[in-house]
Target: Putative e3 ubiquitin protein
Amino acid sequence: KGFLEVLDEHFYVHLSAANPAEPSTYSLNGDWSLHELVTASGKAFEQILGKCKSLSHFLMEFCNMMELTLKAQGEPEKFQRSPEILTRILGDLEHCGWHNLGHLSVAGDEIQLNYTDSRKQKHWLKVHLSPEFPAEAPSYDTDLPVAFEFQWHKGQTLAAVFEAFARQADRLVPFWEAMADLDARCWVLDPPCPRAGDAYRRIALGKNVSVMVVIDPHTPMTLPRLEFTGPEAEVSLHEKAVQDNVDRWDPSASISANLSALLGFEVPSRENATSEEVDCTCGICYSFLLEGAVPDKLCQNSRCSRPFHQSCLSEWMRSLPMVRQNFNMFFGECPYCSEPMSCRM
Model:
């Protein structure tokens, strides 16, 4: 059993024979794609067996049959747009400005247009055209933090789509300015490489505490959603400070200044703090993000309070002989201070 490679395609096969000298005892099994190919060949299994005198002969005949069938299937016929539609698309792109064209597929079914906002930041719009275009509306992908919607009808143009995208990008400039302020004036843990479409930042506050700041792209200067992670006692203090100082939020001030006013202290940045002061990394793998997860399993010893990824702590406890298991839980100790800890298996 194993894989057969035919015309750069791989098929799983399991060939067995009760008596290698007797083709009638051969049995062939495989995956669904192999079954579909044999069906497409129009040949019965017995037809191939009838010509064979050995296992190797059978495999050779079987591979020849598969190769002929694959060649007969060939590549599906590619869709060709009419010259009139292609002329219309090219005319629309000329109105958009050739300097804004990032990509145009050979078939004319995918277009990327780029727009540079007032901050000199480039944003992209991908337009996907179906074979029924322009009767059928295009679909869109963008790097914006909000969905791009355009009311299409047959008389609309791609230039109108691009203009609507540019207007939406311009309206989002205050949002990107707010995110840039957080990136410059706070110790951002996540995302490690922010993109234009990311509407959140997880910021280190010190003492193994971080806060995820989620900003509404439409109203970036209003109070954002704040989600704290860290030792329970420290998190409670921060949540109370936010409640007590919520009236101090000033829409005309920067996001970073408002966060400092809410929390009652200057938010750490890479200019005014050290990595030791804001360390929120996992105590086992020494990283913050692990497959998108943050270290949210904490030692409850207030003198330790080390954070761990759930998966790291589970693997750590799994390797220790003295750890107890109960249902889907491990019961063991903190790797640093031996405080009792538990985690999911």
Q: What stands out?
A: The longest helix spans residues 55-73. The radius of gyration is 31 Å.
